[in-house]
Amino acid sequence: xxxxxxxxxxxxxxxxxxxxxxxxxxxxxxxxxxxxxxxxxxxxxxxxxxxxxxxxxxxxxxxxxxxxxxxxxxxxxxxxxxxxxxxxxxxxxxxxxxxxxxxxxxxxxxxxxxxxxxxxxxxxxxxxxxxxxxxxxxxxxxxxxxxxxxxxxxxxxxxxxxxxxxxxxxxxxxxxxxxxxxxxxxxxxxxxxxxxxxxxxxxxxxxxxxxxxxxxxxxxxxxxxxxxxxxxxxxxxxxxxxxxxxxxxxxxxxxxxxxxxxxxxxxxxxxxxxxxxxxxxxxxxxxxxxxxxxxxxxxxxxxxxxxxxxxxxxxxxxxxxxxxxxxxxxxxxx
Length: 334
Fold this sequence. Notes:
There is one protein chain. By secondary structure, the chain is an alpha/beta fold. The protein has helices spanning 14-25, 40-50, 59-64, 80-89, 104-117, 131-141, 175-191, 287-301, 309-328; strands spanning 5-10, 30-36, 54-56, 70-73, 93-96, 121-123, 148-158, 197-204, 211-220, 223-230, 232-243, 247-250, 262-267, 277-282. Strands 8-9-10-7-11-12-13-14 form an 8-stranded mixed β-sheet, with helices on one face. A 6-stranded parallel β-sheet has the order 3-2-1-4-5-6, sandwiched between helices. A hairpin with a 3-residue loop joins strand 11 and strand 12 (247-250). The longest helix is centred in the C-terminal third of the chain and has 20 residues, at 309-328. The radius of gyration is 20 Å and the shape is globular. It starts with a strand and ends in a 6-residue tail after the last helix.
């Protein structure tokens, strides 16, 4: 393997073209060597627009390319596991968009795949490589806000286009799969634990059938996490973490801009007028570049990926429990 991990991109998904490909082309340990689409003309256009050397008219051809070390899989959610399996069985490492699967049981099948093939498989939660989230772990570890007891998260956007992949049930659409997974990830990362039980309520779009508004309570050994996510509200995102002696707030927790600094706010005074808030700023960076480099280093140096499969299975188990709770009206155990 070369000093850079040579990526092949499955499909021409917007997240790949707008965010991930340009970011990995700037990586210290990543390069984008090929892109595939079931429509060769689309692959060729994407390759031309992004300066990618090779375009393929099928995913199979890209996976078979001996000059590709790793696959980035941003295909529709229901295709994450099938194409991750095909790539891994061809000896390619896989960076797969979230959610890595549609159920925890489906995600668990990847454990055997990883053991059998020896490749790296990682869910693309780019926030796990972001400086502001790594700083959170430091602040919590230092006891800056005392004992963490409460995590509150909000994540929303407005999209009512029935043709959009996020609004199609058969493609694993809906708010919980698309953005609720980040709220769950944030709570599990902050508490460094798994919730013991979950209760949730969902409102589904009457035409499209996808969950357009979801709220949940996650009960952890040390406290509670509450989140609301929606695909049909004004775009907004915030994460608040409250401890016994202070609180931390993320200004832009998930979609960190790559062209300006980001901030978190720390308050250990409890002054309700906000006069005691201290802000910490993080220089502009691209969390997708950091994600690609962290994954590539794990593959090159045979170390752990930023989001191991075990972590992904934990997140999926909570998602499963949320859907069960919304159906049963009861607390459910992940």
